[in-house]
Design goal:
mainly beta, Elongation Factor Tu (Ef-tu), domain 3, 2 domains, two-stranded antiparallel sheet, 9 strands, elongated
């Protein structure tokens, strides 16, 4: 699933009053990403934190750090080592009802219609899984 792996140090700044963080991708790597790219993030500070996100533009290309993560690990206003992997696919949570929500842009590109059955390949709790799922 991983396509592009980069590592760099950067400053995590506080993005809003609620505590969400944001870090910029250094200019030397900005040509490797575009807004909307799906990425997996690993932040090394006192502890290592992993999460999935999208590339955003906020005064330059970068990634938001969710407020729960930024707060729990005191990441805002700190310099951290970041590992970022561009994903070929996309990150999606599985809802409590068992549904997998495909991003709108990806769904439109795939021209998904109800009644179709799609094959979903992914990593669930560190284990690679393949399932067949009806579109609804």
């Amino acid at each position: 699933m991983d396509e592009e792996h980069l590592s760099f140090k950067t400053y995590v700044k506080k993005a809003n009053s609620r505590g969400t963080g944001f870090f910029h991708i250094p200019d030397r790597f900005s040509d490797k990403f575009q807004v909307g790219d799906q990425v997996s993030i690993k932040i090394h500070s006192e502890e290592t934190v992993k999460y999935s996100s999208k590339i955003r533009n906020w005064g330059g290309l970068g990634v938001y750090v969710p407020k729960k993560i930024a707060g729990k690990y005191n990441l805002n206003h700190s310099t951290c080592k970041i590992e970022i992997n561009k994903l070929n696919g996309f990150h999606a949570k599985i809802g409590s009802d068992g549904r997998v929500y495909i991003p709108n842009r990806r769904g439109k590109k795939l021209n998904l219609d109800e009644e179709k059955i799609i094959e979903i390949e992914g990593r669930i709790k560190g284990k690679n899984e393949t399932v067949f799922w009806p579109v609804n």
